[in-house]
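Action item from last meeting closed. Structure (406 res):
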């Protein structure tokens, strides 16, 4: 918003609130489809798999059994117990019920945490490229995002040097999001140990570790949680997760977090005044997902790994395009510096990666998100959480688009 679209009736914070580029591009693609255009979208990070049948059956049973009343604000006992088992089994983390809360997706966890702690003048260190919502939420509460750059040459990992350079006396939070959206970058145990060493030198810095893509890792890698790598820092770490990505449950809106009891209590108080408890039926479904067999995730991960290989090999064969191999999540983040300054077949001069994304949509009917929306261009974010047929055709159209540049 600006002064022309934000009349005096609205709070000034609305001027700091923009529509995330991922949502804006998806809306543009939907509008073109509504007009009859055959648009292929690689813009949203949403699994194309169906929610596992056993999870849906658990939700049905819960509804039939009468689990339809107001749930506790911080989550049902059954789901919190399933979350505690999950943390212990998969992350080597022990959280008591009072150290766990459930929210309307992972985004509300972030919102609750920053609303409870961030004030004007506070700084939040965010590795760049970043998921678009992190800085938007920080700014909404008057905080200042400070960026630690991650580079393609390092497979977009956060280095200890970049983190050290970004921390000041005003830093309140570090946001970690690995496996990463938008790059697919990952952080191994050695990487996290180096980050922990920096954090030990700065005891005023807390960490929001967003591990929503933890199960989607490739090349024999295994995800590790910062709180498990550095148990001495556990009292300063929020470990965020959810069921949306690993279990294809984006619409069920269930996120969860483990962390210091006092902070969890404050976040629960905020949620109680905002949305109250999360849909009881969705919580029953989430508990079934977390306690369910791991082969459901393994199947999805194997499909994503195959799609990743196909997409990256296609991108690397396009002149003027580079692409680091993503080791996690379901995104590729190709560099398009070699395409800048050129002209499309439709006559559009490509001055920025946003120009590229818009022209690609207009001329080849492929929706992607420009990298500058994630803080680092000229890149594109392409999601391979879509069908093989859509992926192959979208990549072919992208190659034709670049081939037509002059």
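Sequence:
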């Amino acid at each position: 918003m600006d002064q022309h679209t934000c009349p005096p009736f609205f709070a000034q914070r609305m001027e700091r609130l923009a529509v995330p580029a991922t949502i804006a591009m998806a809306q543009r693609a939907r509008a073109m489809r509504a007009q009859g255009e055959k648009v292929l979208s690689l813009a949203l990070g949403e699994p194309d798999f169906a929610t596992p049948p056993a999870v849906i059956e658990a939700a049905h049973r819960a509804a039939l059994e009468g689990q339809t009343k107001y749930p506790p604000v911080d989550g049902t006992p059954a789901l919190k117990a399933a979350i505690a088992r999950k943390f212990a089994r998969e992350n080597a983390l022990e959280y008591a019920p009072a150290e766990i809360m459930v929210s309307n997706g992972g985004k509300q966890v972030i919102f609750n945490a920053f609303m409870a702690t961030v004030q004007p003048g506070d700084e939040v260190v965010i590795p760049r490229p970043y998921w678009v919502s992190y800085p938007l939420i920080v700014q909404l509460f008057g905080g200042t995002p400070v960026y630690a750059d991650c580079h393609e040459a390092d497979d977009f990992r956060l280095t200890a040097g970049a983190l050290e350079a970004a921390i000041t006396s005003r830093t309140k939070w570090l946001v970690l999001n690995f496996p990463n959206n938008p790059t697919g970058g990952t952080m191994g145990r050695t990487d996290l140990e180096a980050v922990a060493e920096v954090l030990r030198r700065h005891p005023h810095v807390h960490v929001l570790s967003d591990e929503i893509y933890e199960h989607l890792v490739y090349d024999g890698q295994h995800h590790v949680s910062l709180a498990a790598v550095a148990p001495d820092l556990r009292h300063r770490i929020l470990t965020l997760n959810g069921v949306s990505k690993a279990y294809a449950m984006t619409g069920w809106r269930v996120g969860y977090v483990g962390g210091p009891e006092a902070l969890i209590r404050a976040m629960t108080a905020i949620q109680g005044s905002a949305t109250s408890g999360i849909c009881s039926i969705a919580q029953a479904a989430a508990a079934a997902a977390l306690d369910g067999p791991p082969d459901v995730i393994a199947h999805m991960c194997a499909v994503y790994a195959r799609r990743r290989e196909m997409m990256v090999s296609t991108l690397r064969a396009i002149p003027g395009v580079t692409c680091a191999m993503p080791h996690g999540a379901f995104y590729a983040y190709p560099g398009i510096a070699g395409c800048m300054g050129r002209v499309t077949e439709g006559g559009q001069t490509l001055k920025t990666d946003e120009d590229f994304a818009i022209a690609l949509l207009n001329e080849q009917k492929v929706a992607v998100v420009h990298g500058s929306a994630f803080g680092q261009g000229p890149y594109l974010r392409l999601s391979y959480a879509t069908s093989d047929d859509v992926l192959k055709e979208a990549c072919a159209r992208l190659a034709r688009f670049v081939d037509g540049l002059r």
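Note appended to the action item: The mean pLDDT is 95.
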